[in-house]
Amino acid sequence: MSVSHWIVYSFTSKLYLPNLSSSSSSSSSLPSRIFLRFQFRSLTFSTSLFSPLMPNNQRRGGYKEKKWQARPSSNRVTGSSSSFEPVSAVTTEAITDRLNSLNITESGAQSSVPVASLQFGSVGLAPQSPVQHQKVIWKPKSYGTVSSPTVEAETPNGQKNALLSKLCKGNLLENFTVDNSTFSRAQVRATFYPKFENEKSDQEIRTRMIEMISKGLATVEVSLKHSGSLFMYAGHKGGAYAKNSFGNIYTAVGVFVLGRMFREAWGTQASKKQAEFNEFLERNRMCISMELVTAVLGDHGQRPRDDYAVVTAVTELGNGKPKFYSTPDVIAFCREWRLPTNHVWLFSTRKSVTSFFAAFDALCEEGTATSVCQALDEVADISVPGSKDHIKVQGEILEGLVARIVKRESSEHMERVLRDFPPPPLEGAGLDLGPTLREICAANRSEKQQIKALLQSTGTAFCPNHLDWFGDDNSGSQSRNADRSAVSKFLQSHPADFSTRKIQEMVRLMREKRFPAAFKCHYNFHKISDLSIDNLPFKMVIHVYSDSGFRRYQKEMRHKPGLWPLYRGFFVDLDLFKVNEKKTAEMVGSSNQMVKNEEEDSSIADEDANLMVKLKFLTYKLRTFLIRNGLSTLFKEGPSAYKAYYLRQMKIWNTSAAKQRELSKMLDEWAVYIRRKYGNKPFSSSTYLSEAEPFLEQYAKRSPQNQTLIGSAGNLVKVEDFMAIVEGEDEEGDLEPTKDIAPSSPSISTKDMVAKNEGLIIFFPGIPGCAKSALCKEILNVPGGLGDDRPVHSLMGDLIKGRYWQKVADERRRKPYSIMLADKNAPNEEVWRQIENMCLSTKASAIPVIPDSEGTEINPFSIDALAVFIFRVLHRVNHPGNLDKSSPNAGYVMLMFYHLYEGKSRQEFESELIERFGSLVKIPLLKPERLVNFFLLNPHPK
Fold first, then answer.
1. Which end of the chain has fewer CB atoms within 10 angstroms, the N or the C?
2. Where is this region: Disordered (predicted)?
3. Paired sense of beta strands 218-225 and 400-407, if any
């Protein structure tokens, strides 16, 4: 993967904009794209007709004798993404020297507005010369494989190396044309359960569950939630995956923990059993999903005392729709392979299930692992303790419970499994298992060093090569990212089998409906031997950005019962290939018959079959939601905004009035404590417990009431000496650039690292009145351009006759290394596709610049923002596009532009732009303390 470099451009200026103050973009998941940040300070504005109504809003745990209990009951039922090349960069000093002042004015402006700085940060860039205090990052020519007599990388022949090199450079994919002989094969490689979002309230779901149990139609199954990260394993060839990524620190930790658990369970037989396990998964095309709980990947609700994993799902992938094992079958599978299982309770009578909900209601605000497990053991019909005791390996802070409807035969099925599969022994408990996860991470301080050390320690059974982490060294290819066109070509090709047809159907629907999701293709280095001009192997990640995507997809499934579910953690092996003329006719005919054999499965569409409710405890939510997630609000907006935030959260949770008062008192004290310690500079949320836990411990010591409020405190695990460096990634390991650590010596001249051979397109998905022309004009007036010798050009849409974007494309071809300011509103996907094509054809990157706004549920811009845009338009004169105070239909035009964005929430809008272009610039609409005139938004107050 390419090295991440951050370069800051800054300049001080004057600008007629209502305080475009500090703003930052979301980081890119592609290593060679650009990330820009505009920052403006010290802004004033002469008029008073504005308001802040748009806010920038570890002990080893062993297997022990497990007990289950069955309570007889007469009521029980019996039975059985694309990657662009990096753009050249400039140093901070160069920009500062060249850009001293800016003046942006508009006709009719009453005064000019001072603006401070515009900052550009970039990923995959390097400055022309080292800047004082700036860390110079060295990019090695190759990573290689960890040197070990037992670790061997797969080495393709010279021809394959050349093909792979071309593939990674884009040549093979770019030249791969889709015609009648083109087919694709898509098979699910790893996945977790579909994410089902109930449209009913939790109380309605609970009532329906009790009703179904009373009628003998189902059983309620409750599982304990360990607080960690999703980890999936599909065999040593199938790969290791996190929620939305692979080949990073999350998956390296996962395979290490999995390998260590085998050694702990099987002792001297571990190597043999590891090999058998991998062969079993590969032969049967299976995937296991686990909750990976460690102290090295960032804080959740409590730092675990040990590093472990618990199996939460076993999936048969086959060649069709994935099939998930029932919980009894998961326990049987895990006990056969001596893998850790979770704590599960079954409730099959009305009395037991109502007692369960009553127990939760009594414990939801103060419950800890001990009290909750004891209570559920008392009321459940069957209790199956987990092989990992939550109290011993993680602690008392319990995230929650998951209750779901399962078949009414589940109780008898579970009884048979517990009889036929007793808890397995722990043969490796007294053996030296080698360095622990924390010891390895403590001895290797950079993320890449940690990955290499962990993979080497894991051994060849679970990690025979390091291709998913470091690419193919023999071909000189480390980059995994494939061009976005791989997805388009996949959809245009003939499906080779039923699985492919169904996956095409899913992807096509989500793209057409503009779901907040990404379909990121990566080169599949495990299939190098299959690579040819007419056969291109990829891995595709289906990444759903927000829960709204799952909800919208479920609505589509109700209208299309044959539609496959949308899974959480969704990875697909994708091959594009061509066949000869004779084979084409055969395969096309076969493909056309598939639709007749489609299986009708409406189980997912049946709401009762998918009733599920997540029940979380306040002692956990206090730490994660109120403290960790509130840090940003506290440091950016202050104590008042923080108080409003946590009160709103508690209201949503229906927290009792007494607990709200207790928590408010504690959280106000926390806010004062942490702000006094850190001032206005926030600390990392990934290690927030280093500060929060000592505070909570001291607070709990004051009174028994405080101790009950906190739940448990005082057992803080220190992570600073071994925690993996994962800043910039989310807690589930979303796809992000790998960060290389600069060597202390020798000093590498960054001037020799990145050539100035690409262009840049800056465009504006905005609405008239967002001040894009004023910004473009001022950039053009900067003496010496932007300091890197690339010319800066602007095409103002209001002055261009004819097809504007075609003229931009023509200008890009004439001056491919220039910086193009596309001074025209770009509101729709058709324009965005044209810009993407320009980038691909002229070797450029594109940066969308948008006005910041809260947005609505169906529009990325709020009504308040629209009012500001209209206000600006109606106060300008002599506008080149004739949209000013003298325009007879200015309001209609503004509404027309506003409705062009209809159908996307703010989050969906930003996610799509980031997915397409890998970057996003947000410029605040107003100065935070600016007051909006009441009469502007309320012309007829009472």
1. C
2. 56-83
3. antiparallel
pLDDT at residue 15 in the model:
32
Residue type, 591: S
**CA proximity to 15, closest of 138, 104, 141:** 104
Average pLDDT score over residue span 42-57: 34
Q: How far is CA 839 from CA 50, 66, 246, 746, 783, in A?
A: 38, 60, 27, 36, 27
DSSP 627: I
Q: What is the pLDDT of residue 591?
A: 59
Listed residue (839, 822, 825) closest to 917, CA to CA: 839
CB 881 within 8 A of CB 798: yes
Report residue 246: phi and psi, to 5°.
-155, 165
Task: Give me 940's structure tokens.
Answer: 């007829």
**Pairing verdict, β 382-384 and 344-347:** antiparallel
pLDDT per position as a tens digit, 340-396? 999 999 999 999 999 999 999 999 999 999 999 999 999 999 999 999 999 999 999
3-class DSSP state of 567: strand
Residues 14 and 121 sit within 8 Å (Cβ to Cβ): no
More confident residue, 879 or 161: 879
- Quick count: other Cβ atoms within 10 Å of Cβ 408? 19
746 prior amide bond cis, ω within 30? yes
Specify the 3-state DSSP secondary structure of 441: helix
Residue with tokens 């003998």: 216
End-to-end CA distance of the chain: 62
In the chain, % of residues over pLDDT 90? 35
Output the CA–CA distances (angstroms, integers) from residue 905 to 517, 853, 856, in the order listed: 13, 11, 6
What is the C-alpha to C-alpha distance for residues 257 and 458, in angstroms, rounded to an integer? 8
- How many other C-beta atoms lie within 10 A of the C-beta of residue 324? 18
The pLDDT, as a whole number, for residue 883 is: 84
- List, for residues 246-303, the tens digit of each pLDDT value: 999 999 999 999 999 999 999 999 999 999 999 999 999 999 999 999 998 888 888 8
Instruction: Tell me which residue has tokens 């401070």.
Output: 116
- pLDDT mean across residues, the chain: 75
Burial 707-723 (b: 16+ CB within 10 A, else e): eebbbbbeebbebeebb
Residue 875 is classified by DSSP as T
Q: How far apart are the C-alpha atoms of 173 and 534, rounded to whole Å?
A: 10
The amino acid present at 268, given as its one-letter code, is T
Q: How far is CA 348 from CA 329, 353, 355, 410, 445, in A?
A: 18, 7, 11, 9, 51
Residue 45 has pLDDT above 60, yes or no: no
Q: Note whether 859 and 866 are within 8 A (CB).
A: no
- In terms of C-beta distances under 8 Å and separation of at least 24 residues, what long-range contacts does 531-535 make, across chains too? 531/156, 531/160, 531/163, 531/164, 531/167, 532/163, 533/163, 533/172, 533/175, 533/176, 534/176, 534/577, 534/578, 535/575, 535/576, 535/577, 535/578
What is the DSSP code (8-state) at residue 206?
H
Q: Where in the sequence numbering do the catalytic residues fall? A: 225
Residues 6+ apart with CB under 8 A from 864: 53, 54, 853, 854, 932, 937
Residue 413's φ and ψ, nearest 5 degrees, are -60, -45
The confidence score (pLDDT) of residue 892 equals 84
φ, ψ for residue 811, nearest 5 deg: -65, -35
Nearest-CA neighbor of 223 among 414, 424, 422, 383? 383
Read off the pLDDT band of 723 (50, 70, 90): low
